[in-house]
């Protein structure tokens, strides 16, 4: 796939690109995105693409939302920067935290503002540790995360992330992070095992893990309601109820990473509601500001807050915080984003158009290369397989998922491959017509790749 750049321009690409093969990149150069409008982005030659992944799951409201531009520029004039350290606050941060507490799907008492999803989860990890010390339980600090989880890429959160690419050559993961199975029914269930039985087994395995480690050493379990970067894994029936029962039994905190699911993606305001979690901590980012400016947040239950406040009061200060945490311009944009979600009833919209996406994706289920189609609300995935009957995956070296994404790009659709699962998470404001167009472009890409695969 070659983009619209001259060789000399490509040579001058000064960016070290994340999640990109730097050697292949030299051959193709970057796809340079110049502007966006609604659910579409345009490259520097003017070609349009439907953004099938909301620009890394961020841009819920699409591009060109003038109210967010206005909120940013007003705040930029009034108070472009201030921090929250040492008894200081500003209106956008206070209003944002109040709104988040009002929206929270379970009772929460305070919000800690951060700048990215990784910072939010890193903060959650640190506060869990702080609380354990405050409670005089210094041994109760181990955390559990799942295979194929994605919780960030700081040195600490990379270890929560359960993807080899984030570990290899970084000397990670930290062996102190315990690993639970990925609830991927299609891949990990035993032959004939129902979703309920699979969930029961995973909960039993979690209990065995906690007992083997010693319940007095295990502090928390991290979970995305729907696992995003791991390939859009929707929890099987009964999963979170059974997991929650085990966590409650051994006094293990639940951290719901709502960085992707939060703010309507699964059809409810939070994935926590869709799947019945009872978290003690919720982390949010991305959709919080519709991606227009970086901001994230950690919502904390009273069970977290009370010991932390007591400990910080005793020591004299809470020794944690980022210069840009709760940046006023980002916070003002986030406040406006939350207002727009409410005024336009984004949940009702997802309720209307989500089934169109899910039905459309299910339309590919009988395709010979499609092993599974899965999803909920406005998030979904199509997983390709070499053999539908045996579920045998393609040799990763063939890069079939990447080829499909490349073909989709040629047909004007931006998607993302996680192995051979191709993920869809368009801006939440997408219309039914735009979903239909997106699926048409995907069908063309799938036909191309099918022809290539059969030829080989
Ligand atoms: N948690 C989840 C569920 C995510 O999907 C991501 C980012 N894709 C993160 C955390 C990390 O967010 P960031 O890239 O802003 O650090």
UniProtKB/TrEMBL annotation:
Keywords: Aminotransferase, Pyridoxal phosphate, Transferase. SUPFAM superfamilies: PLP-dependent transferases. It comes from the Bacteria. Its cofactor is pyridoxal 5'-phosphate. GO terms for molecular function: transaminase activity. PANTHER family: ADENOSYLMETHIONINE-8-AMINO-7-OXONONANOATE AMINOTRANSFERASE. Belongs to the class-III pyridoxal-phosphate-dependent aminotransferase family. This is Aspartate aminotransferase family protein.
């Amino acid at each position: 796939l070659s983009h619209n750049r001259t060789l000399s321009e490509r040579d001058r690409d000064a960016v070290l690109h994340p999640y990109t093969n730097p050697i292949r990149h030299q051959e193709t150069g970057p796809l340079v995105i110049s502007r966006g409008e609604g659910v579409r982005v345009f490259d520097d030659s003017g070609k349009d693409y439907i953004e099938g992944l909301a620009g890394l799951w961020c841009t819920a409201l699409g591009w060109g939302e003038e109210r967010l531009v206005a909120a940013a520029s007003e705040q930029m004039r009034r108070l472009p920067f201030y921090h929250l350290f040492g008894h200081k606050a500003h209106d956008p941060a206070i209003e944002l935290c109040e709104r988040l507490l009002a929206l929270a799907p379970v009772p929460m008492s305070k919000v800690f503002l951060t700048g990215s999803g990784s910072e939010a989860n890193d903060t959650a990890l640190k506060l869990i540790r702080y609380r354990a010390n405050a409670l005089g339980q210094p041994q109760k600090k181990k955390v559990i995360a799942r295979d194929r989880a994605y919780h960030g890429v700081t040195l600490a959160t990379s270890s929560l992330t359960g993807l080899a690419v984030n570990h290899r050559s970084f000397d990670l993961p930290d062996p102190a992070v315990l690993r639970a199975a990925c609830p991927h029914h299609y891949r990990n269930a035993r032959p004939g095992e129902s979703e309920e039985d699979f969930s029961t087994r995973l909960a039993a395995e979690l209990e065995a893990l906690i007992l083997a480690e010693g319940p007095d050493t295990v502090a928390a379990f991290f979970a995305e309601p729907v696992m995003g970067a791991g390939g859009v894994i929707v929890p099987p029936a009964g999963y979170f109820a059974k997991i929650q029962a085990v966590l409650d039994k051994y006094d293990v905190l639940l951290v719901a990473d709502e960085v992707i699911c939060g703010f309507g993606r699964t059809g409810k305001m939070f994935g926590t509601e869709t799947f019945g979690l009872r978290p003690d901590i919720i982390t949010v980012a991305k959709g919080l500001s519709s991606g227009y400016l970086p901001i994230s947040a950690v919502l904390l239950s009273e069970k977290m807050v009370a010991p932390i406040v007591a400990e910080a009061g005793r020591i004299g200060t809470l020794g944690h915080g980022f210069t840009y945490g709760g940046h006023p311009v980002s916070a003002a944009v986030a406040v406006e984003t939350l207002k727009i979600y409410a005024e336009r009833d984004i949940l009702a919209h997802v309720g209307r158009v989500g089934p169109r996406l899910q039905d459309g994706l299910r339309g590919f289920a009988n395709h010979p290369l499609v092993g599974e189609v899965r999803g909920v609300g406005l998030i979904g995935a199509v997983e390709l397989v070499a053999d539908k009957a045996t579920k045998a995956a393609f040799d990763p070296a063939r890069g079939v998922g990447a080829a499909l994404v490349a073909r989709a790009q040629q047909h004007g659709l931006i998607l993302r491959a996680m192995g051979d699962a191709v993920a869809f998470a368009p801006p939440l404001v997408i219309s039914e017509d735009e979903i239909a167009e997106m699926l048409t472009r995907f069908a063309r890409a799938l036909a191309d790749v099918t022809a290539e695969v059969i030829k080989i």
